[in-house]
Amino acid sequence: MRKTVPALLWLLGMQAAFGATANPGTPNLGKPAGPADMRRWDIDIGRDGRWLPPGEGTAAQGAPIFAGKCAACHGDGGRGTDLSRKGLPAPPVLVSDMKRKGIDGSTTTIANFWPYAPPLFGYIRAAMPWNEPRSLTDHEVYALTAFILAENKLIDAKQVMNAQTLAKVMMPNRNGFLVRFPEITPR
Predict the structure, then answer these.
(1) What are the phi and psi torsion angles at 154 (to 5°)?
(2) pTM score
(3) d(CA 84, CA 74)
(4) Of 15, 69, 99, 162, which residue has the fewest beta carbons closer than 10 angstroms?
(5) Which of 37 and 99 is assigned the larger pLDDT?
(6) What is the distance of C-alpha 130 from the center of its chain?
């Protein structure tokens, strides 16, 4: 007990002397995100088309955009590159006649990988082109989405894609997915 009291007093003294300087606070990096900052990053697209932005595009408008910004990785017309044809790692083939032929990586296509068309728009807008993500306008993304869907024969090549029409596209494998958590998945 005799040794405990002085040790405890010493510990309390050290806490009082240095406790205030032990935590320097925040490093003062960055700034609080305001509503305008949050809107720039709020780019979710619902599977039913909720939150699709204004704009529109056609396959004819998307073809030159694809040739200029996408073909270097995905090949001419989205049909793959020499790397993908040789089975080497490469960006996915976007256009294929295979509608559904298994679930391994070699047969992943737009038609069998995406159960809904609006999230395809969202992915292109958020992640493409690979070297400049989020650099495309909404009109360009609608046009690219229309081009990819038309090349896969999922829509008519002359159909205009916008928030209303894209939400109505029926993907061929829409019902080919298993719901992992059916009790919490909205219907």
Answers:
(1) -95, -20
(2) 0.74
(3) 9
(4) 15
(5) 37
(6) 11
Q: What angle do CA 139, 141, 144 make, to 5 degrees?
A: 110
Q: Tokens 């010493």 identify what position?
A: 10
Specify whether the CB–CB gap between 141 and 159 falls below 8 A: no
Q: What would the pLDDT profile of 60-92 be if each residue is shown by its tens digit? A: 999 999 999 999 888 898 887 777 566 667 777
Kindly give, in sequence order, each residue whose CB lies less than 8 Å from that of residue 76, ignoring residues fewer than 6 positions away. 67
pLDDT category, 162, cuts 50, 70, 90?
very high
Q: What tokens does 12 get? A: 């309390």
| Domains identified in the chain and CATH numbers | 55-173 (1.10.760.10)
Contact criterion met (CB below 8 Å) for 147 and 69:
no
What pLDDT digit, counting tens, does each position of 121-133 carry? 999 999 999 999 9
Distance, in Å, from the CA atom of 78 to the CA atom of 70, rounded to the nearest integer, reads 8
